[in-house]
Amino acid sequence: MASHDLTVMGGGIFGLACAWEATRRGARVRLIERHALGAGSSGGLVGALAPHVPENWNDKKQFQLESLLMAPGWWAEVAATGGTDPGYLQSGRLQPIPDDRALTNARARIAEAETLWQGRAAWRVIPATGAAWAPQSPTGYLIHDTLTARLHPRRAVAALAAALRAKGAEIQIGDPTPQGNISQGPTLWATGYPGLLDLNTAFAHPVGAGVKGQALLLRYDARDLPQLFADALHIVPHADGTTAIGSTSENDWADPATTDAQLDAILARARAALPALSQAPVIDRWAGIRPRARSRAPMLGAWPGRPGHFIANGGFKIGFGMAPKVACVMADLILSGQDSIPPGFTVAANLPQAFGR
């Protein structure tokens, strides 16, 4: 009999979230991380949990909506169990409306959001008042959605680890090989960008790749204010009195962990969009590789040809926002055999036949 009901490989947001959900359901869980918790893209700075635009609805948008709606209670339980605050707040978001066509579209989405978001959050068009904490808008109007939330990625990783330990889960840092057979009981592989490269080899086809991102952190306290989306940048106030700015999306890079002039350009754009940040000092910079599955949706489910092995990968830019729902569907599948993973999220959806070749 296996000493664990589930072994989770990988200490990023998907691995930690899935381990937590299984643990809270009573499973005996061991999590193995080779380097450090949050060592990959989950150790970033931004933490914007933003919804898709409420139009052209599909499974991906519905899945993300359900995850965002369950997030307040899910993260509150994590914080209460482990005594560590992930910095979660359903803060809402403001974004400028650039022209009359965009203003018409924004107003049309009010009714769509009321229906699609089930009356639990709102999409509004409001006048831009010129407040210091608001982006400048060419039309004089802003979109204000109340569904967007934020958390601090590093604090969220620490909060999940604390909750797991409080519930008796085992967290092991280092190479698993000397520790014995990791295949006892079901094994979930949530190993981020390196894991996608391994899957490319295992399947002899590209099922995913990495996209480099860069972000920075300012000493500016707007902790109770909405986050902003301006000039394609997320400007996210955190609970600790800092504000994160991000991010780039780079398909070509020389060094995955080094920041460069592209980050300086992001800072200049953020300060142009929000002059209140003009004197805020930079206190941290981050660069890392985010895992993107070929389908551009999270890749979830059983590992074809490897009974008892499962995959949760490809969080890309929305891993923290998707994490509660990802954790629930993976716990359902692994612990109960209940498969509610949307077709576009499956491992098969990332294999060649899904793309017609």
From TrEMBL:
The organism's place on the tree of life at top rank? Bacteria
FAD dependent oxidoreductase domain mapped to chain residues: 5-333
Task: Please give the InterPro entries that the UniProt record associates with this protein.
Answer: FAD-dep_OxRdtase, FAD/NAD-bd_sf
Keyword Oxidoreductase in the entry? The reply is: yes
Keywords, sorted A to Z: Oxidoreductase
Q: What is this protein called?
A: FAD-dependent oxidoreductase
- This chain's source organism reads Paragemmobacter ruber
Q: What does the record give as the organism's lineage?
A: Bacteria, Pseudomonadati, Pseudomonadota, Alphaproteobacteria, Rhodobacterales
